[in-house]
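re the bet — no i am not wrong, look at it urself. input seq straight from the record:
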Amino acid sequence: MVILITITLFACEGTYKKVQKMNLKDEQPVAVGKNINLKYTDSGKVSVNLLAPVLKDYSNFKFPYQEFPEGIILYFWEDGKKSTVVSDYAVKYEVTGLVDLRKNVKITTSDSTVVNANQLYWDQKNKWIFTNQPYQIKFADGSYNDGEQFDSSQDFTTFLSRKNQGVQLIDKTETTNGN
């Protein structure tokens, strides 16, 4: 009798999951959230705060992702210093850890570096941001750069720009050997 009940329960569970999938229309999210205010903590302190008017969760797809069709605001705290990311649209891909930020993207770091672009990608796993679209960046020291493409560590300690123009400040106290 116990075996029969166990088989019935497992059979019902599989059927229930199939019924759930059948109730979802093609190309529809598994969940939709409104007025999202997610807080991620590390050692009891808030490290990231995500705000979004709408979150669509497509974790039911073979390549799962989350879509923020009305934009996001992200606040990051590291060593007590706050940085901000804002965009009018965003997609976070679960498998790759890549975040695609689009339309009026603005990053303001804790040291006042400001990046403006129409599209930026953020590789969360490798802590790297990049774009192949035009951008403007103003660094904390006052130097700035307008360009078409860049790759950078998320803290901007490594910054590689292509096809750009701007003003770079050079420390005049350093001297060369005449080479």
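see?? The mean pLDDT is 79. told u. also The domain at 32-167 is CATH 2.60.450.10 (lipopolysaccharide transport protein A fold). so pay up
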